[in-house]
Amino acid sequence: MKKSALPDPFAQAREAKGYGTVEDQNDPVTMLLRLKDVRKTAKDTKTFQSGAAPGRIVVPSEVSIRDTRQIPFEVDPPMHGEYRALLEDWFKRPEQPDYRESLEEIITELVDEALQMDSLEVMEQFALKLQSRALTLLLNIPYEESETWIGWGMHVFRSEESALDGDKAAILYDYIDAQIDKAIEHPGDDLYSVLLDSEIEGRKLTKEEVKGVMILTFAGGRDTVINAVTNSIAYFAEHPESLTRLDNEPEITAHAVEELVRYFSPLTHMGRVVTEDTQVCEHAAKADTRVSLCWASANRDASTFENPNEIVIDRKMNPHVGFGFGIHKCLGATHARQVLRVLLGVLAQKVKSIDILEQKDNIEDWGEFQRKVGYDSIQVEFHRKD
Amino acid sequence: MAKITFITSDNETIVAEANSGSVMELAKDNNVNGIDGDCGGVCSCATCHVHVAAGDFDKVGAPGEIEADMLELEDNYNEHSRLCCQIDISDAIDGVTLHVVN
């Protein structure tokens, strides 16, 4: 097994029965493992709702540590569409040339820095910085603000001891409250101000709604982007030929990014609450219980993907669900794609090879499934091109 | 060379030409409203859904199995639906009209 590999722990259960079960704070979750079931369930927002108690569709559940509803993520139609329409244009900004140029500056600086160091720990010294600095672009706020977020360290939500830590979550929630108050006093052209000035159903968004969008933006795009960036570095360390190929054929970059997202599936799964007694995968699902859409398993479903456990860097047919599926698909996907596309471009241009010196895998515990999602830490050495 | 006519959901008509690539890329290059092509053309995002004009469907052809699996869960799916990232530009599709769904 290569050091950068992310094994598929779901294969046997996916083929044999199509689902698995994970206990979570007395609110167990039936994990759906097959691509077709995941897609179908994601589309059926009536039977499988997101607008349950705030925090309940997240696994592990955040019901005990969060009252604010994340928007539009924890809202069902028709209101979901109203919120989403408000946000779409803003979250498409990463496609603009000047946004891409700013990203290139951020990433080039980090790669140049890495090339000068004897070695570096990728999560803290590269990916966290990249994610935080790139987020200033998405929020349209000064670059310097990223220092605050980098100072929070790796796990605002996830502490070392337990998956859920209310004190850590409060750091983010208090920070966002303060930023919203600041934007009310001094409106600008940042996301906070734009949201505060937005209208829905003929009224202004409330502070609580703005907070709900901002929590989603921070929380949804932190660990996921950090893992995708770090896993990419680990992959290229063991596949320098892919870097060469990307340098020679930059036109395959977009395909490569989709393939990395499929293989890494930075978000393992996301829950839904069942609204009426039904069946999923010939398994009874009772009203007011939880199911989850296991993106990570669906993305290795051999009934759709040839050689699902291999990274085929220019995979052409790739109907993955790494960014989710249906109306709740990742709002930050345009940003994440641009981050990864630029990262691959800069690496291919400047880096000859990368050595992995030491690593500690981050293994998620989902009851019967143990899934490597990335690294707790990974020390590497970058080598520049001649 | 293939000439493609796009008709958007707000009834704008855009005629575009190309020799190669996919129809999705052609639409993006010509700023056809409603064709986002978020995933870059790997049949993952379904943001390039078109209805092929009835008389042109034979020229364009039916979707493959993986594309059909995606399409049948889409809103406004019908028997002329295609994801245009999966339609390659060639002389064979010269002159077709595509109605943009979104």
TrEMBL record, chain A:
Short name of one Pfam family for this protein?
p450
Q: Which GO terms describe its molecular function?
A: heme binding; iron ion binding; monooxygenase activity; oxidoreductase activity, acting on paired donors, with incorporation or reduction of molecular oxygen
The UniProt keyword set, sorted, is:
Heme, Iron, Metal-binding, Monooxygenase, Oxidoreductase
Q: Which InterPro entries match?
A: Cyt_P450, Cyt_P450_B, Cyt_P450_CS, Cyt_P450_sf
Region (Disordered), start-end ranges: 1-23
Q: Which PANTHER family match?
A: P450, PUTATIVE (EUROFUNG)-RELATED
The name on file for this protein is: Cytochrome P450
Q: What is the lineage of its organism?
A: Bacteria, Pseudomonadati, Bacteroidota, Cytophagia, Cytophagales
Q: Which organism is it from?
A: Reichenbachiella agariperforans
- Which family does the UniProt entry place this protein in? Belongs to the cytochrome P450 family.
Automatic annotation (TrEMBL), chain B:
Has keyword Magnesium? no
PROSITE patterns in the record: 2FE2S_FER_2 (PS51085)
Q: Which superkingdom heads the taxonomic lineage of this protein's source?
A: Bacteria
Q: Which CDD domains match?
A: fer2
Q: Which GO terms describe its molecular function?
A: 2 iron, 2 sulfur cluster binding; electron transfer activity; metal ion binding
Name one matching Pfam family. Answer: Fer2
What UniProt keywords apply to this chain's record, in alphabetical order? 2Fe-2S, Iron, Iron-sulfur, Metal-binding
Domain (2Fe-2S ferredoxin-type) ranges: 2-102
A GO biological process of this protein is: P450-containing electron transport chain
Q: Which cofactors are required for activity?
A: [2Fe-2S] cluster
The keyword Amino-acid biosynthesis belongs to this UniProt entry's keyword annotation = no
Family annotation (Gene3D superfamilies): 3.10.20.30
Q: Which family does it belong to?
A: Belongs to the adrenodoxin/putidaredoxin family.
Q: Which PANTHER family match?
A: FERREDOXIN-2, MITOCHONDRIAL, FERREDOXIN/ADRENODOXIN
Q: What protein name applies here?
A: Ferredoxin, 2Fe-2S
